[in-house]
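Give me structure tokens for this 983-residue protein.
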Amino acid sequence: MLFLFVTAFAPEKALNNTMTDIKGKEIIDDTEKQRLDALYKYDILYTSPEESFDNITQIMATVFEMPMAFISLVDHHNVFYKSQAGPFGRESVSRTDSLCSITILKSEPTVFEDTGSYDTLVNNPLVKVKGGIKFYAGAPLITADGQHIGAVCIVDTKPRKFAEEKKQLLVRFAKMVMHEIELRRAAKSEAVDLQKKVEESLKELEQFKVDKQAYNLFMKAPVAISIYKGPEHIVELSNDTALRLAGKTPEVIGKSIREVIPEIEAQGFIGLLDSVLETGRPFNAFEAPITLHTHGKEEHLYLNFIYQPYYDLNGNITGVLAFAVDVTEQVLARKKVEESEQRFRNVLEQAPDPIFILKGNDLVLDVANDPLFKLWNVGKEALGKPFLEILPEMKDQGFYDLLQDVLQNGVTHYGHEMPVYLIRSNGLKETIYFNFVYQPFREADGKVTGVLVLASDVSEQVLAKQKVLESEKNFRTLVMQAPIGICMLIGEDFLVEEANESYLQLAGKQRQNFVGRPLWEGLPEAKNQGFDALLEQVLKTGIAYTGKEYPVTIDRAGEKEALFIDFVYEPLKEDDGTIKRIMVLAINVTDKVIARKEIEYSEERARLAIDSAELGTFEVNLMTDEIVSSIRMDSIFGLSGSVDRNRFISSIHPDDIVARDSAYRQAYQTGRLEYESRVIWNDGTVHWVRIKGRLFLDEKRTPVRLLGVAQDISEQKLFAEELEKQVEDRTKELSIANEELQKLNVELEQFAYAASHDMQEPLRKVQTFSTMLLQNNLDQFDERGKNYLNKIASSVARMKAIIEDLLKYSQHTRENKDFVSTDLNKILENIEADLELNIAEKDAVILKKPLPDIEAIPTQINQLFYNIITNALKFGKPGVPVEIRVSARELLPDDVKKRMILNWEKKYVELRFTDNGIGFEQEYAEKIFSLFKRLHGRSEFEGTGIGLALCKKIIHNHNGDIYATSVPDEGTTFYVILPVSQQ
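Here you go.
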């Protein structure tokens, strides 16, 4: 819309420097008169548009992102707009109607962020109407002597926040405009001043020829005047201005100008004097550069000067009369103006958004910046071409008609998020969204000759808006599928509005018992662990809270579990700014915390181990060959003081150098260094050392660093030599004993197997006859007899089970150890299938995590899993569903070393079978793996007491380990450790 820029503020407050007499006649006080005098000196009121000022208003509108910007000058009655950007269109308004009249009353910026909130402005019709003025900011134009002659201001149709740094930026724009006004006045008056000074000087010179008084005027003239006589250009006369300009004194009179100012000959001025003297033709120069040596330094000046012939009384040319005016300040000022204009052009060219000017009826592209060329996908050869020749697709989209309307009628058009399609080189249409301004481009006389276009690509914002609805629609899906726990809480009771599966799993809760209820009702165990206070603080202050590795105990299906979590309590603001909701984001970092603590523990243990083992440590930079060694390392090699790597190497026994070099070559392949060698100390003694280390590679897999330890093994070597002798002797003895032991084992196994089979025959007869009695002659027995027969049958069945388990135990002792790659997951699936009825009967659930493949005897591992699972089912708590958790992990080297029976050089996996059964006292943990050891009576739980002993036998066959931990009434965990490979 076209604004009539008026306001309803009180005029008497705005123009508090005007007053009237008793007849109502207005009186201008001294302050206002001085201000107006300062304004009129610039001769700028009601003048034609000027590009430098138009550039500033356009930049202001762009920088502040405002629809309108103005440069105003305030005289006695009116406010004249020297330049404007936006849909205003008026040259001036009454002073009492302009907000700029308020701006000039004070030195700091005037800002109305929302005009509707000011009593003095609320009744303004342009504030009240739809689309009226809602925001105004202005800074005064202040002259060097402090007079406020006008303002720069920006206006919007909606309220705006205006930060302090933007006020200061507006002040800098005001200073820029004031500087342009000063330069304008200086440049405009420059030519007039020069002509005036020359005319005055000529007149004074004529007077000089007449009388002494004229001479005095000549000498005091503000224009430099000199007379040079003869071919040598002798200085006959030079006034004070000329002497001061050249930095000379009257002593130069009577000397040649070449001698007085020798530097001007190389600059061509002597040649000009020669020419005027010879030809009699005057020479004029405007803003001629000259370099003078004055007061011991070079000074660069600009002069307007005239060389004209000097005639004697007979009309002969006897010299040259020189007039000069120092215009250095004006030239430098104009150059600053030119630089300022160039800066404006640079701003145009460096603007991040497209800016261009179309000229004439054909809308020829006259000026454009690089973003415009990039957008249109054209080069600078497009300059000078009609708009529709460059982009013919624009005609049918309505933009060409808008441009013609601007050109023909001087109407400014605005576009907000307007779609436009461009046809690219591949022939495809690309739709882009723009905010743009089509503004008339006016020449100095005010005539519209083209269209200035400022455009801003807002495709991202528009597409983002279009995606908001889709994002909101997908938000719930995103939250529900997020890999981290997310929960939405509302109100002071922290009602669980929504929670995703990750959060429910973290909290160990079921959706139907959690969502839709107060948080502490569904998660009571967390309330008194500090989370309640944190949530209340976030809800009250609106400040988010972030917790890192926060400990929490969660009740999961009746089992308390200690966790560490990272979480964020993020307050969410409603439309009215209040906070009613809190978003909870939580991640279980227990494994990370435990792993870090284990690493810290391992590092500390490693340090203790190094100290206790008296190991020396070293680090080698393989790129520079520099070494850093510990004191113990130096002492192992018999060295002291500052030690370089070559001294360590030279200490090695010559016979062991080859072994060392071989170890290093292998280390470059494997990454691990290990060798033993002798070292010779300075006293000539020989010591044995063991070196172990690891190489580290850079991103190019080039070895760059070596870390290692050294151990003095001299005593071990001596002991080993002695031990080797003893071992040789004992080996012979053990070989004989081992052969005899193997024969005994075979005989024992044969006896056990035969005895077990022989025992089953009488048992079968006892079982057969007792069964016949129960089936055929039961009515011949009284209750006591029947009870005896039942006990006989029960005992026989138990005895048979014992014998079968003994056979299995014996079988695993004799069985060939054919190890193959075994999928433990498949073994567990088979067990679940075999025990399907038992699992259903116990209402049991087996919670399993992925298990690895290992080298094993599948039938034995099947028996192992079967016995452990059936044991957990058997010893479940009455009335409580059995829960069995199965998991696996690879043991760390330190974990392997804790189990003395394991081979430290092998990799092992640890399988965990955890149940929630009746448990047992830990003191019985070793006894449960012995044959026939039972912790409960047969009347309570069935069994032979061989199952776990059989498990231990299977683990022994696999070169592993098995143990258990338990707490009464809380459950038992069996730890099964097996090597990954039997090699």
